[in-house]
Specification:
With about 475 residues, the chain is α+β, with helices and mostly antiparallel strands. About 35% of the residues lie in helices and about 15% in strands. It is built from 16 helices and 14 strands. The chain starts with a helix and ends in a 50-residue tail after the last helix.
Protein backbone atom coordinates (compact mmCIF):
# COMPACT_ATOMS: atom_id res chain seq x y z
CA UNK A 1 0.00 0.00 0.00
CA UNK A 2 1.24 3.37 -0.97
CA UNK A 3 1.80 5.98 1.73
CA UNK A 4 -1.02 8.06 0.37
CA UNK A 5 -3.47 5.25 0.77
CA UNK A 6 -2.26 4.45 4.29
CA UNK A 7 -2.84 7.99 5.37
CA UNK A 8 -6.31 8.06 3.82
CA UNK A 9 -7.34 4.78 5.48
CA UNK A 10 -6.10 5.95 8.85
CA UNK A 11 -8.03 9.18 8.56
CA UNK A 12 -11.29 7.38 7.67
CA UNK A 13 -10.88 4.94 10.55
CA UNK A 14 -10.29 7.74 12.98
CA UNK A 15 -13.36 9.61 11.74
CA UNK A 16 -15.58 6.54 12.10
CA UNK A 17 -14.35 5.90 15.55
CA UNK A 18 -15.13 9.44 16.72
CA UNK A 19 -18.62 9.47 15.21
CA UNK A 20 -19.73 6.08 16.48
CA UNK A 21 -21.18 7.33 19.87
CA UNK A 22 -23.58 9.58 17.99
CA UNK A 23 -25.10 6.89 15.80
CA UNK A 24 -27.55 5.24 18.33
CA UNK A 25 -29.24 8.48 19.31
CA UNK A 26 -29.43 9.73 15.81
CA UNK A 27 -31.00 6.52 14.40
CA UNK A 28 -33.62 6.10 17.22
CA UNK A 29 -31.94 3.06 18.56
CA UNK A 30 -32.00 2.64 22.32
CA UNK A 31 -30.00 -0.09 24.00
CA UNK A 32 -28.35 -0.30 27.42
CA UNK A 33 -25.10 -1.78 28.29
CA UNK A 34 -24.76 -3.12 31.86
CA UNK A 35 -21.34 -2.42 33.29
CA UNK A 36 -19.97 -4.81 35.81
CA UNK A 37 -19.31 -3.56 39.42
CA UNK A 38 -15.63 -3.03 39.92
CA UNK A 39 -13.74 -2.97 43.34
CA UNK A 40 -10.50 -1.01 43.69
CA UNK A 41 -7.72 -1.79 46.19
CA UNK A 42 -5.08 0.86 47.01
CA UNK A 43 -1.59 -0.61 47.28
CA UNK A 44 1.48 1.38 48.48
CA UNK A 45 4.45 1.06 46.23
CA UNK A 46 7.87 2.60 45.88
CA UNK A 47 9.25 3.98 42.73
CA UNK A 48 12.33 2.28 41.45
CA UNK A 49 14.78 3.54 38.93
CA UNK A 50 14.47 1.21 36.05
CA UNK A 51 18.10 1.11 35.14
CA UNK A 52 19.11 0.35 38.78
CA UNK A 53 16.55 -2.41 39.02
CA UNK A 54 17.77 -3.89 35.83
CA UNK A 55 21.36 -3.79 37.09
CA UNK A 56 20.48 -5.44 40.48
CA UNK A 57 21.72 -2.52 42.70
CA UNK A 58 20.16 -1.77 46.09
CA UNK A 59 18.08 1.37 46.30
CA UNK A 60 19.82 4.28 48.15
CA UNK A 61 19.08 4.76 51.86
CA UNK A 62 17.05 7.79 52.75
CA UNK A 63 19.20 10.82 53.60
CA UNK A 64 18.93 12.10 57.23
CA UNK A 65 17.77 15.59 57.78
CA UNK A 66 20.69 18.01 58.01
CA UNK A 67 21.49 19.25 61.57
CA UNK A 68 21.27 22.93 62.09
CA UNK A 69 24.46 24.16 63.93
CA UNK A 70 23.88 26.32 67.05
CA UNK A 71 24.71 29.97 66.80
CA UNK A 72 28.39 30.75 67.47
CA UNK A 73 29.23 31.54 71.14
CA UNK A 74 32.63 33.16 70.63
CA UNK A 75 36.13 31.66 70.97
CA UNK A 76 36.72 29.01 73.63
CA UNK A 77 38.63 30.14 76.78
CA UNK A 78 41.95 28.42 77.42
CA UNK A 79 42.04 26.01 80.37
CA UNK A 80 43.15 27.52 83.69
CA UNK A 81 46.10 25.17 83.85
CA UNK A 82 47.56 26.47 80.59
CA UNK A 83 48.77 29.72 82.20
CA UNK A 84 47.95 32.53 84.61
CA UNK A 85 44.79 34.47 84.09
CA UNK A 86 45.25 37.91 82.55
CA UNK A 87 43.96 39.67 85.67
CA UNK A 88 46.13 37.64 88.11
CA UNK A 89 49.82 38.22 88.84
CA UNK A 90 52.20 35.26 88.89
CA UNK A 91 52.93 34.01 92.44
CA UNK A 92 55.85 35.70 94.16
CA UNK A 93 58.81 33.53 95.16
CA UNK A 94 58.92 32.67 98.89
CA UNK A 95 60.80 35.13 101.06
CA UNK A 96 64.12 33.87 102.41
CA UNK A 97 64.10 32.83 106.04
CA UNK A 98 65.58 35.45 108.37
CA UNK A 99 69.08 34.84 109.64
CA UNK A 100 69.63 33.84 113.23
CA UNK A 101 69.86 36.90 115.45
CA UNK A 102 68.62 39.24 112.75
CA UNK A 103 65.78 40.53 114.93
CA UNK A 104 66.58 42.87 117.78
CA UNK A 105 66.30 41.28 121.22
CA UNK A 106 63.54 42.56 123.51
CA UNK A 107 65.00 41.11 126.70
CA UNK A 108 65.32 44.62 128.16
CA UNK A 109 61.52 44.73 128.45
CA UNK A 110 61.63 41.93 131.05
CA UNK A 111 63.39 43.89 133.79
CA UNK A 112 63.25 47.23 135.60
CA UNK A 113 63.94 50.22 133.41
CA UNK A 114 66.82 51.31 135.65
CA UNK A 115 68.78 48.15 134.81
CA UNK A 116 71.62 48.06 132.30
CA UNK A 117 72.20 44.28 132.35
CA UNK A 118 69.55 41.88 131.05
CA UNK A 119 69.81 38.15 130.45
CA UNK A 120 67.28 35.56 129.27
CA UNK A 121 68.32 31.92 129.44
CA UNK A 122 66.07 29.35 127.76
CA UNK A 123 67.00 26.59 130.16
CA UNK A 124 64.83 23.91 128.58
CA UNK A 125 66.53 24.48 125.20
CA UNK A 126 70.12 24.26 126.40
CA UNK A 127 69.72 21.52 129.03
CA UNK A 128 70.51 18.76 126.53
CA UNK A 129 73.57 20.38 124.94
CA UNK A 130 77.02 18.84 125.52
CA UNK A 131 78.29 22.10 127.04
CA UNK A 132 75.25 22.74 129.27
CA UNK A 133 77.39 22.56 132.42
CA UNK A 134 79.55 25.41 131.13
CA UNK A 135 76.41 27.55 130.78
CA UNK A 136 75.56 26.89 134.43
CA UNK A 137 79.08 27.91 135.45
CA UNK A 138 78.52 31.35 133.90
CA UNK A 139 75.65 31.98 136.34
CA UNK A 140 77.11 30.20 139.35
CA UNK A 141 79.24 33.15 140.58
CA UNK A 142 76.07 35.22 141.05
CA UNK A 143 75.24 35.35 144.78
CA UNK A 144 71.53 34.89 144.05
CA UNK A 145 72.26 31.76 142.05
CA UNK A 146 74.21 30.31 144.95
CA UNK A 147 71.51 31.34 147.42
CA UNK A 148 68.42 30.16 145.53
CA UNK A 149 69.49 27.39 143.15
CA UNK A 150 72.26 25.78 145.18
CA UNK A 151 70.68 26.47 148.56
CA UNK A 152 67.21 25.34 147.49
CA UNK A 153 68.37 22.12 145.87
CA UNK A 154 67.14 23.13 142.42
CA UNK A 155 68.68 22.25 139.08
CA UNK A 156 69.08 25.41 137.03
CA UNK A 157 68.36 23.73 133.67
CA UNK A 158 65.98 20.93 134.70
CA UNK A 159 63.61 22.65 137.14
CA UNK A 160 63.11 25.89 135.18
CA UNK A 161 62.06 26.73 131.63
CA UNK A 162 63.34 30.32 131.58
CA UNK A 163 65.59 32.39 133.83
CA UNK A 164 65.69 36.21 133.68
CA UNK A 165 68.36 38.31 135.41
CA UNK A 166 68.41 42.11 135.37
CA UNK A 167 70.43 44.57 137.39
CA UNK A 168 71.86 48.09 137.36
CA UNK A 169 74.91 46.71 139.21
CA UNK A 170 75.62 42.99 139.38
CA UNK A 171 78.04 43.54 142.24
CA UNK A 172 75.27 44.96 144.40
CA UNK A 173 73.36 41.91 145.58
CA UNK A 174 70.23 43.79 146.64
CA UNK A 175 69.84 45.49 143.23
CA UNK A 176 69.56 42.27 141.22
CA UNK A 177 66.16 41.33 139.82
CA UNK A 178 65.36 37.66 139.17
CA UNK A 179 62.47 35.91 137.45
CA UNK A 180 61.90 32.26 136.59
CA UNK A 181 59.27 30.15 134.90
CA UNK A 182 59.32 26.96 136.95
CA UNK A 183 58.39 23.38 136.07
CA UNK A 184 57.72 22.26 139.63
CA UNK A 185 54.60 23.04 141.63
CA UNK A 186 54.38 26.35 143.48
CA UNK A 187 54.38 24.50 146.80
CA UNK A 188 57.61 22.73 145.84
CA UNK A 189 59.25 26.02 144.85
CA UNK A 190 58.18 27.62 148.13
CA UNK A 191 59.64 24.68 150.06
CA UNK A 192 62.93 25.05 148.20
CA UNK A 193 63.10 28.76 148.99
CA UNK A 194 62.47 27.99 152.65
CA UNK A 195 65.38 25.50 152.60
CA UNK A 196 67.61 28.12 150.98
CA UNK A 197 66.68 30.70 153.61
CA UNK A 198 67.22 28.22 156.45
CA UNK A 199 70.70 27.43 155.14
CA UNK A 200 71.54 31.12 155.64
CA UNK A 201 69.90 31.39 159.06
CA UNK A 202 66.79 33.08 157.68
CA UNK A 203 63.08 32.37 157.59
CA UNK A 204 60.35 33.31 155.11
CA UNK A 205 56.92 34.30 156.41
CA UNK A 206 54.54 33.88 153.47
CA UNK A 207 51.57 36.23 153.06
CA UNK A 208 48.94 36.87 150.41
CA UNK A 209 48.26 40.36 149.04
CA UNK A 210 45.68 40.93 146.32
CA UNK A 211 45.85 37.25 145.47
CA UNK A 212 49.66 37.20 145.21
CA UNK A 213 51.68 34.92 147.48
CA UNK A 214 54.86 36.67 148.64
CA UNK A 215 57.51 36.49 151.32
CA UNK A 216 60.70 38.23 152.47
CA UNK A 217 63.59 36.19 153.95
CA UNK A 218 64.59 37.66 157.33
CA UNK A 219 67.18 36.57 159.93
CA UNK A 220 65.78 34.12 162.46
CA UNK A 221 67.82 35.66 165.28
CA UNK A 222 66.57 39.19 164.52
CA UNK A 223 63.39 39.24 162.41
CA UNK A 224 63.27 43.04 162.42
CA UNK A 225 66.58 43.22 160.61
CA UNK A 226 66.30 43.21 156.82
CA UNK A 227 69.63 43.42 155.04
CA UNK A 228 68.09 42.48 151.69
CA UNK A 229 64.82 44.32 150.94
CA UNK A 230 63.75 41.91 148.22
CA UNK A 231 60.62 39.78 148.13
CA UNK A 232 59.72 36.54 146.43
CA UNK A 233 56.43 37.05 144.58
CA UNK A 234 54.46 34.36 142.72
CA UNK A 235 52.76 35.65 139.58
CA UNK A 236 50.53 33.95 137.04
CA UNK A 237 51.63 31.34 134.47
CA UNK A 238 54.09 29.58 136.83
CA UNK A 239 56.32 32.66 137.11
CA UNK A 240 58.04 33.82 140.29
CA UNK A 241 60.13 36.97 140.80
CA UNK A 242 62.64 38.19 143.37
CA UNK A 243 62.21 41.96 143.43
CA UNK A 244 62.90 44.97 145.64
CA UNK A 245 60.18 46.08 148.04
CA UNK A 246 59.58 49.43 146.34
CA UNK A 247 58.30 47.60 143.26
CA UNK A 248 55.58 45.72 145.16
CA UNK A 249 52.79 48.38 144.90
CA UNK A 250 53.22 48.64 141.13
CA UNK A 251 53.31 44.85 140.78
CA UNK A 252 50.09 44.47 142.75
CA UNK A 253 48.41 47.31 140.80
CA UNK A 254 49.26 45.70 137.48
CA UNK A 255 50.35 47.29 134.18
CA UNK A 256 49.64 50.95 133.43
CA UNK A 257 50.96 52.05 130.04
CA UNK A 258 50.17 55.70 130.78
CA UNK A 259 52.89 55.78 133.45
CA UNK A 260 55.72 54.58 131.23
CA UNK A 261 58.17 51.95 132.46
CA UNK A 262 56.64 50.76 135.73
CA UNK A 263 57.16 47.53 137.62
CA UNK A 264 53.63 46.48 136.74
CA UNK A 265 54.39 46.84 133.05
CA UNK A 266 57.55 44.76 132.91
CA UNK A 267 56.11 42.18 135.32
CA UNK A 268 53.15 41.79 132.95
CA UNK A 269 55.70 40.95 130.25
CA UNK A 270 57.16 38.25 132.48
CA UNK A 271 53.92 36.29 132.30
CA UNK A 272 54.54 36.12 128.53
CA UNK A 273 58.06 34.74 128.64
CA UNK A 274 57.26 32.22 125.92
CA UNK A 275 56.30 35.06 123.58
CA UNK A 276 59.57 36.91 124.15
CA UNK A 277 61.60 33.73 123.73
CA UNK A 278 59.70 32.85 120.53
CA UNK A 279 60.86 36.09 118.92
CA UNK A 280 64.12 34.22 118.26
CA UNK A 281 63.12 30.56 118.75
CA UNK A 282 66.62 29.20 118.12
CA UNK A 283 68.29 31.31 120.82
CA UNK A 284 69.41 29.61 124.00
CA UNK A 285 70.95 32.71 125.56
CA UNK A 286 70.15 36.39 125.01
CA UNK A 287 72.22 39.08 126.69
CA UNK A 288 71.73 42.85 126.50
CA UNK A 289 74.03 45.51 128.01
CA UNK A 290 72.91 49.15 127.91
CA UNK A 291 74.66 52.46 128.62
CA UNK A 292 78.06 50.86 129.08
CA UNK A 293 79.95 54.11 128.66
CA UNK A 294 78.12 55.62 131.61
CA UNK A 295 78.35 52.56 133.86
CA UNK A 296 82.02 51.66 133.29
CA UNK A 297 84.52 53.78 135.19
CA UNK A 298 87.91 53.79 133.46
CA UNK A 299 91.11 55.22 134.89
CA UNK A 300 92.70 55.64 131.46
CA UNK A 301 91.81 55.56 127.79
CA UNK A 302 90.96 51.99 126.72
CA UNK A 303 93.02 50.40 123.93
CA UNK A 304 89.89 49.92 121.83
CA UNK A 305 86.57 51.78 121.54
CA UNK A 306 83.94 50.65 124.03
CA UNK A 307 80.41 50.30 122.64
CA UNK A 308 77.54 52.00 124.37
CA UNK A 309 75.10 49.11 123.83
CA UNK A 310 75.86 45.44 123.32
CA UNK A 311 73.61 42.53 122.37
CA UNK A 312 74.59 38.86 122.28
CA UNK A 313 72.62 35.87 121.02
CA UNK A 314 73.84 32.29 121.23
CA UNK A 315 72.05 29.50 119.39
CA UNK A 316 70.84 26.46 121.33
CA UNK A 317 72.66 23.98 119.11
CA UNK A 318 75.53 21.51 119.33
CA UNK A 319 77.37 23.65 116.76
CA UNK A 320 75.98 27.03 117.77
CA UNK A 321 75.92 30.27 115.87
CA UNK A 322 76.91 33.38 117.81
CA UNK A 323 75.82 36.92 116.94
CA UNK A 324 77.19 40.02 118.69
CA UNK A 325 75.73 43.43 117.88
CA UNK A 326 77.55 46.48 119.22
CA UNK A 327 76.39 50.07 118.94
CA UNK A 328 78.90 52.89 119.45
CA UNK A 329 78.33 56.53 120.26
CA UNK A 330 79.21 57.54 116.70
CA UNK A 331 80.40 56.14 113.39
CA UNK A 332 83.98 57.21 114.13
CA UNK A 333 84.32 54.72 116.98
CA UNK A 334 82.63 52.00 114.95
CA UNK A 335 85.02 52.57 112.03
CA UNK A 336 88.02 52.52 114.36
CA UNK A 337 86.91 49.25 115.92
CA UNK A 338 86.35 47.72 112.49
CA UNK A 339 89.90 48.67 111.47
CA UNK A 340 91.37 47.28 114.69
CA UNK A 341 89.50 44.03 114.19
CA UNK A 342 90.74 43.63 110.63
CA UNK A 343 94.31 44.93 111.00
CA UNK A 344 95.48 44.98 114.61
CA UNK A 345 93.80 41.94 116.13
CA UNK A 346 95.60 39.30 113.99
CA UNK A 347 98.98 40.68 115.05
CA UNK A 348 97.86 40.80 118.68
CA UNK A 349 96.82 37.12 118.55
CA UNK A 350 100.19 36.09 117.13
CA UNK A 351 102.21 38.16 119.62
CA UNK A 352 100.26 38.07 122.88
CA UNK A 353 98.10 34.94 122.98
CA UNK A 354 99.83 31.92 124.57
CA UNK A 355 100.92 29.28 122.12
CA UNK A 356 98.71 26.50 123.56
CA UNK A 357 95.53 28.54 122.93
CA UNK A 358 96.66 30.51 119.88
CA UNK A 359 95.31 28.01 117.38
CA UNK A 360 91.88 28.00 119.04
CA UNK A 361 91.71 31.79 119.23
CA UNK A 362 92.91 32.14 115.67
CA UNK A 363 90.20 29.76 114.47
CA UNK A 364 87.59 31.89 116.26
CA UNK A 365 88.86 34.98 114.51
CA UNK A 366 88.90 33.41 111.05
CA UNK A 367 85.38 32.00 111.49
CA UNK A 368 83.90 35.38 112.40
CA UNK A 369 82.24 37.68 109.87
CA UNK A 370 82.22 41.41 110.54
CA UNK A 371 79.84 44.00 109.09
CA UNK A 372 79.43 47.69 109.89
CA UNK A 373 76.35 49.87 109.38
CA UNK A 374 77.02 53.47 110.38
CA UNK A 375 77.70 53.32 114.14
CA UNK A 376 76.74 49.64 114.52
CA UNK A 377 79.17 46.76 114.24
CA UNK A 378 77.96 43.16 113.97
CA UNK A 379 79.94 39.95 114.42
CA UNK A 380 78.63 36.54 113.33
CA UNK A 381 80.31 33.14 113.61
CA UNK A 382 79.57 29.40 113.65
CA UNK A 383 81.43 27.36 116.23
CA UNK A 384 82.07 23.68 116.77
CA UNK A 385 81.16 21.95 120.02
CA UNK A 386 84.71 22.26 121.39
CA UNK A 387 85.00 25.89 120.39
CA UNK A 388 81.66 26.72 122.02
CA UNK A 389 82.69 25.01 125.25
CA UNK A 390 86.00 26.90 125.29
CA UNK A 391 84.25 30.25 124.83
CA UNK A 392 81.71 29.53 127.57
CA UNK A 393 84.48 28.53 129.97
CA UNK A 394 86.30 31.81 129.29
CA UNK A 395 83.09 33.77 129.90
CA UNK A 396 82.53 31.88 133.16
CA UNK A 397 86.06 32.69 134.29
CA UNK A 398 85.47 36.36 133.53
CA UNK A 399 82.22 36.31 135.52
CA UNK A 400 83.99 34.70 138.46
CA UNK A 401 86.63 37.41 138.54
CA UNK A 402 84.14 40.24 138.09
CA UNK A 403 82.05 38.99 141.02
CA UNK A 404 85.16 38.32 143.14
CA UNK A 405 84.54 34.63 143.75
CA UNK A 406 87.48 32.34 144.39
CA UNK A 407 88.01 29.16 142.36
CA UNK A 408 87.58 27.18 145.60
CA UNK A 409 84.14 28.69 146.19
CA UNK A 410 83.03 27.93 142.64
CA UNK A 411 84.28 24.35 142.86
CA UNK A 412 82.62 23.73 146.24
CA UNK A 413 79.27 25.01 144.96
CA UNK A 414 79.55 22.88 141.82
CA UNK A 415 80.27 19.76 143.86
CA UNK A 416 77.30 20.50 146.12
CA UNK A 417 74.94 20.84 143.14
CA UNK A 418 76.16 17.54 141.72
CA UNK A 419 75.57 15.75 145.04
CA UNK A 420 72.08 17.21 145.32
CA UNK A 421 71.20 16.09 141.80
CA UNK A 422 72.48 12.62 142.56
CA UNK A 423 70.36 12.57 145.74
CA UNK A 424 67.35 13.41 143.58
CA UNK A 425 68.20 10.42 141.38
CA UNK A 426 68.72 12.67 138.37
CA UNK A 427 65.31 14.26 138.63
CA UNK A 428 63.18 11.28 139.59
CA UNK A 429 62.66 12.84 143.02
CA UNK A 430 61.62 16.38 143.83
CA UNK A 431 63.99 18.51 145.93
CA UNK A 432 61.77 18.05 148.99
CA UNK A 433 61.64 14.27 148.60
CA UNK A 434 65.42 14.03 148.41
CA UNK A 435 66.65 16.85 150.64
CA UNK A 436 64.18 17.28 153.49
CA UNK A 437 66.02 16.05 156.61
CA UNK A 438 64.49 13.09 158.40
CA UNK A 439 66.79 13.22 161.44
CA UNK A 440 66.60 16.88 162.40
CA UNK A 441 69.62 17.86 160.29
CA UNK A 442 69.89 21.10 158.41
CA UNK A 443 67.62 21.44 155.39
CA UNK A 444 68.93 21.99 151.91
CA UNK A 445 72.18 20.01 152.20
CA UNK A 446 72.91 16.36 151.45
CA UNK A 447 73.55 14.21 154.49
CA UNK A 448 76.96 14.93 155.99
CA UNK A 449 77.66 18.02 153.82
CA UNK A 450 78.54 21.15 155.83
CA UNK A 451 76.78 24.39 154.84
CA UNK A 452 78.56 26.71 152.46
CA UNK A 453 78.35 30.33 153.61
CA UNK A 454 77.97 32.68 150.68
CA UNK A 455 78.66 35.93 152.53
CA UNK A 456 81.97 35.05 154.17
CA UNK A 457 84.76 34.22 151.69
CA UNK A 458 87.50 32.10 153.25
CA UNK A 459 90.17 34.69 152.42
CA UNK A 460 88.47 37.38 154.52
CA UNK A 461 88.11 39.67 151.48
CA UNK A 462 85.01 41.61 150.50
CA UNK A 463 81.94 39.46 150.11
CA UNK A 464 79.91 39.42 146.92
CA UNK A 465 77.70 42.48 146.79
CA UNK A 466 80.09 44.51 148.99
CA UNK A 467 82.03 47.35 147.26
CA UNK A 468 85.68 46.53 146.65
CA UNK A 469 86.86 49.56 148.59
CA UNK A 470 85.00 48.53 151.76
CA UNK A 471 87.14 47.41 154.73
CA UNK A 472 87.37 43.68 155.40
CA UNK A 473 84.57 42.34 157.51
CA UNK A 474 84.58 39.80 160.26
CA UNK A 475 82.30 36.83 159.56
CA UNK A 476 79.17 37.01 161.73
CA UNK A 477 78.56 34.35 164.37
CA UNK A 478 76.94 31.16 163.22
CA UNK A 479 73.15 31.53 163.02
CA UNK A 480 70.87 29.64 165.29
CA UNK A 481 69.85 26.24 163.92
CA UNK A 482 66.58 26.04 162.06
CA UNK A 483 63.68 24.67 164.10
CA UNK A 484 62.91 21.05 163.52
CA UNK A 485 59.99 20.54 161.11
Amino acid sequence: MTPTRRILAAGLASLALHLSPLIPGGCGLDFKLEMPELEFEVTQFETVELDQELKGAQPPEPQPEPEVPPPPMGPDKPPEADGPKPEEKPPEPPKPKPKFGEKTSRVAELGPGSSNFFMLLSAKKVSGLPFADAIVEIMSPLPDFDFIVTGGGFHALKDFNYIVIASPNLRDLTQTFLAVEYRLTQAEVQAGLERAAAAEGEKIEWEVRDGRTMGNPRPIANPDQDDDPRWFVFLDEDVAVYVREEFLPAILAGPDESKGETAGNFVANLTKLKTFAAREPRAGLQLVLKDLRASIKLKSEPPFPIPNNLELMAEASTSPELVIKSEYLDAVDATKMERQWSEDLPAFIDDKVPFYTRFMVRSFYEATEIARDDKSLNLRADFTKDQAKFILEQIAEGARRMLRRTPEQIEAARKQREEMWAARKNGKLTPSEALTPKDGGKAGKPSGEPPLGQNAPPDGGPAPGIPSDAPPIVPPPAPAPAPSP
